[in-house]
Amino acid sequence: MSNFRMHLLVCGGTGCTASDSLELVKMLKESIKKHEITNEVEVVVTGCFGFCEKGPILKVYPDNVFYITVKPEDAEEIITEHVIKGRKVERLLYVEPNTKKRLEGQKSIPFYKKQIRIALRNCGFINPEDINEYIAADGYQALAKCLTEMSPDEVIDTVVQSGLRGRGGGGYPTGLKWKYTRQNQSDEKYIICNADEGDPGAFMDRSILEGDPHSVLEAMAIAGYAIGAQYGYIYIRAEYPLAISRLEIAIKQARKLGLLGEDIFSTGFNFNIGLRYGAGAFVCGEETALIHSVEGKRGEPSSKPPFPAQRGVWDKPSCVNNVETFANIPPIFLKGPAWFKKIGTEKSPGTKVFALAGKVNNVGLVEVPMGITLREVIFDIGGGIKNNKRFKAVQTGGPSGGCITSENLDIPIDYESLSSIGSMMGSGGMIVMDEDNCMVDIAKFYIEFTKDESCGKCTPCRIGNTRMLEILEKITKGNGTEQDLKDLVELGDVIKDTSLCGLGQTSPNPVLSTLHYFQDEYLAHVRDKHCPAGVCQALFSFRILPEKCVGCTACARICPAHCIEGERKKVHVIDQSRCIKCGACYNTCKFNAIEKG
Amino acid sequence: MGLINVTINNQTIAVEEGTTILEAAKKLDIRIPTLCYLNLEHVKTVNGSASCRVCVVEIEGRRNLAPSCATPVSEGMVVRTNTLRCIKARRLVVELLLSNHPTDCLICEKNLNCELQSLAAELDIRRIKFHGVRATHEKDISSKAIIRNMDKCILCRRCETMCNEVQTVHVYSAVNRGFDTFIAPALNLPMDKSICTFCGQCVSVCPTAALTVVNEARDGGHGKNGSCS
Ligand SMILES: Cc1cc2nc3c(=O)[nH]c(=O)nc-3n(C[C@H](O)[C@H](O)[C@H](O)COP(=O)(O)O)c2cc1C
Ligand code: SF4
Ligand code: SF4
Ligand code: SF4
Ligand code: SF4
Ligand code: SF4
Ligand code: FES
Ligand code: FES
Prior knowledge:
The complex is a heterodimer. Chain A is α/β, with parallel strands linked by helices. Chain A is 39% helix and 16% strand. Chain A has five domains: 6-113, Glutaredoxin; 131-340, NADH-ubiquinone oxidoreductase 51kDa subunit (Rossmann fold), CATH 3.40.50; 351-434, Ubiquitin-like (UB roll) (Roll), CATH 3.10.20.600; 439-526, de novo design (two linked rop proteins) (Up-down Bundle), CATH 1.20.1440; 541-596, Alpha-Beta Plaits. Chain A is built from 25 helices and 20 strands. In chain A, helix 2 (21-34) crosses helix 3, helix 7 crosses helix 10 and helix 18 packs antiparallel against helix 19. Chain A starts with 5 loop residues before the first strand and ends with a strand. Chain B folds into two domains: 1-134, Ubiquitin-like (UB roll) (Roll); 135-229, Alpha-Beta Plaits (2-Layer Sandwich), CATH 3.30.70. Helix content of chain B is 21%, strand content 18%. Chain B is built from six helices and eleven strands. In chain B, strand 1 and strand 2 form a beta hairpin. The longest helix of chain B has 16 residues, at 84-99. Chain B is globular and about 55 Å long. The N and C termini of chain B lie far apart (38 Å). Chains A and B meet through helix 18, helix 19 and helix 20 of A and helix 2 of B. One iron/sulfur cluster binds at residues 153-159, 183, 205-208, 210-211 of chain B.
């Protein structure tokens, strides 16, 4: 990056691309040409900055000025004002919501303040389609070090010492997994990168692959050297076209430079990587199902043991690791395992990337040190709850995680703590809910997802989840009984206890955790036939409060069912029998005269 | 091969490495109910789908229950097959199967000769707690030899193992996902259009009336392809 006076880093992640960042790039380039400064300034299309909520993002380097929601038509002003005259474009800076101050540096923005970027270190910093930028950022040095200075056992020891645990959900120590796979003798072994990322709303792995594909390739080669494999598969969902194309480019470039292929660094070590595409079934992210899918069979889990380390792809020992796990590997070798171990907590060192979503002000991708509290993530980084509503719960761990309430907001985020309160780390989904969310409805939503994603192989998951969903539907329709709540617990416990794979073993978590923490809300549904959050259509109604209604007729005019009656300046009344509960009147009334409940 | 010590219901036994809990229990005369498991010793093939989850047992130090038919013993393993937790789980699993099963035993071809039926009796199941939708499939009566009634299929996968691994004809595989899963010939073709050789082996291993042979007198067919030798 050295020949240019200035770099304009424009986000080319999926979020910003959708809000026209590539058009912005085009306009910037045109303007640069027009002003004849093409040899001074370079535009770099990077991976996701994480702050997708405020995209498209443009960062000026080395000035370290961070512009948000930049539109293509802002290009000219950025070039003439900032690049040429050195004056910041104030209106494109981030405004701190409390102090209303405009902040210019990325680090000063609260969203970034508490973040530590290891897995995402290069996302939003380098051009993912140019291997030279990765190399300039110390890329492939870790591989060189491993191949030329370390034995495979030393490589494994380093990973063991770092304490790195799998980021794909299970949290299994990565070093140990490598060690076991190394110990199993075989003429062929395989490295598999799990890029299936099936959790709804999750995009951690996609962002890493889009923003820094080489870090994953480099780590896979290191893993290959460590366990004795010469081939790696990346199992990626076909719905990730940008990530796939960046991976294809990266593999081609790495092969051209001899960083993949035969006799890497003249050490006699060979390693190649191929892509395999998943059709988008959630269960195909489960490692045994993934292996069957790579082999071209039905993506269905099988009983463990045998573990992939014993019998994986083509019945050969295979090491399956998640994208984010791999992305942590190169820095561990460059900075040493002791450095890594110091970050995070004793049992869960390092960082974790979360996809923060739901009712928070700053949705996006955040990488935080383990041990940080949920409160810090939601309120400091996430900027608190949208529209000043009340926080109700946060769901971690994807569709089979549990809901966590405010009383547990101060527990440190790590594998054990989250499990101890009925949730889990999972792959990093984090969905925030506010007072308008009905927890019964949320539980129903998740069980509906897992029921649809069940592979159908084992009885408890195939039939049990369907029965759980049926009971929840009954409750949300107002036909539930207290016995149903007991049945849900009984069913949930047995499904967890007897299912074949991780999907069924965790699918009842959202139901069980909400039943535990929000029992009153369930009871309101079954006893009082009332949905306190006003979500379950059959269990709430809209009423016009006579003391507040001024008879403005606004509600009657907007009601699509024409079921509000009342003369001008007289109290209006809703005919409940015809009301479709669309909420239009409630949202329209300026006098807060319509009550929901 | 080394010997491995395992304790099942307080009885200890040394068994060969690779032995499953189910096999070790058998040696101790401890009965664990099974459904999908099938050991075809004469052809050295085991149906190891571990899909029914009826044979689950408790292993000390393990978070969830383990399918005894597919879990090999390990040194010092302590197993319990008859705890309340196992029994309750097993019963619920069978209840779930029954909740998605036609209850027409009285007029069923397999009546009194049905593994699901006898399992339900063995576990003393006298009511089905959970009710809900039942998967329904069109009965495949296309062939003159085999009738497929997927409404009675419990997805044990024995037919698949038999046809694909033993007979190596590869007729069956699972189609669809989740609750809608069923077993069918490729492309969900009817039997008479499939590559089936009508050897009848799948019928002989099916624990329920999901696969049955055409009975000429009853069904009025002309069973030309009746059976294989
Ligand atoms: C239903 C299900 C879905 C899963 N989906 C993913 C996934 O999308 N990505 C992933 O890396 N791991 C997923 N896993 C976890 C994998 O089975 C496996 O543990 C992981 O890839 C191992 O890598 P790690 O040790 O680096 O975390 C899933 C597990 C289950 C049970
Ligand atoms: S738990 Fe669900 S997804 Fe996993 S094997 Fe059983 S049916 Fe398939
Ligand atoms: S909720 Fe909708 S249908 Fe009901 S009264 Fe209001 S506007 Fe009319
Ligand atoms: S298959 Fe067995 S359980 Fe099912 S109806 Fe027939 S006899 Fe009864
Ligand atoms: S009868 Fe047909 S489907 Fe059944 S085992 Fe024989 S070849 Fe396979
Ligand atoms: S058809 Fe019979 S043997 Fe085949 S899976 Fe169904 S129940 Fe099992
Ligand atoms: S896609 Fe641009 S910040 Fe995430
Ligand atoms: S008999 Fe063991 S799982 Fe079916």
